[in-house]
Design goal:
It is a single chain. The chain is of the alpha/beta class. The chain is built from 17 helices and 13 strands. It has 2 domains: 2-159 and 344-377, Rossmann fold, CATH 3.40.50; 162-341, Rossmann fold, CATH 3.40.50. The strands form 2 sheets. A 7-stranded parallel β-sheet has the order 3-2-1-4-5-6-7, with helices on both faces. It has a 6-stranded parallel β-sheet with strand order 10-9-8-11-12-13, with helices on both faces. Residues 379-390 have low confidence and may be disordered.
Length: 390
Amino acid sequence: MALVASSLRLGGAEKQTMYLARALGQAGLEVRLYYLGSGGYYERVIRDAGVPVQQIFVPNRPWSILARLVRALRRFRPHLAMAAQFSDLNYAAPAGRFVHALVIGGVRSDGLYELSTQGWRGRWLARLAHGLVANSRRARQNLEARGIPAEKIEVLPNVIDLAEFDAQSALALAPLLPADRVVAVAVGSLHSCKRFDRFLEALARARQREPALAGIIAGSDGGVEAALRGRAAALGLTAQDLLFLGECDRVPALLTRAALLVLTSDYEGFPNVILEAMAAGLPVISVPAGDASTIVQAGANGWIVDPEDIPGMADGMVRLAQSPAMRREFGKAGRHRVEREYNLESLPDRLLAVLGRLACRQRRSPVGTLLDGAAARGQAPRDLPPVDRN
């Protein structure tokens, strides 16, 4: 299998790409990752996991990248070519089709984002792919509503490596705010779609009733940090009340030292940060973006609030800040849910099953039959037949 990725930066989607690469290798497939970018945090992590990585990158020359990828796939002759994210189909789809591989596209947001950001190419890429693997049910619904055949779409939720997360949680982290503060944290790149302005508004309102509350926003600046800082100042949030942390490579350690997570995005697929917060034993207050309302069970491990219900968001922050017992109860329930339903150990079998179903629907037997059968038996397919070139 050829896995094609253009970004391996420190991000949630890229972490899931790393998990996929590892799971494919653990499942017994011969997998190679073709990296169409430069640098990136997870490139080293994937190499260290034993997955071969071939970098194909020519700055500002997309046609050269495509030509080199085609040559690389002709040498490798994969049965499957998977784009880590939907935009990577710009390269993986034509190159995979050229070598007669089964082409699979990853959908990491809500489906509408993928189609809209690609413009006229969006529907063409969706048609060119033999199948799409979305990480959320919301994405599948949105894609079907835009005319993508249901049989081309499978859902594979995000997972988390709990052993790795727990190890990273124990890493040192310098004190960020006074020890007597109850910290609400928001994590993500500072883009307008993440709507951290809602977090600021809710925090400022909540602090009127519970002054012990403080906030941390962790994420690299995507162009809106200056505006957010200005809004925070206008709301009276001082450096003792709110910290802009920037990009953080110790998110597990940060979450473990916080009291609750707040997610305020306009759109998401399967919010990875919610899994991480639940793994850290945090209650979650979230808007119903993507599959957030599926992950967060209202009244059990957090609450779902309307995106424009700032008073409701603030009320949830106050209730949690004033009740350590509730935070512990919600946090325990969230951790148990992650352990039961979103653990990394389940990924290889789930992934094989998804790929097997897509292959069979495209009449790619015996590849699909072997993948599906291996998943059902909990075993890995060791010897696949040659790719059918007819």
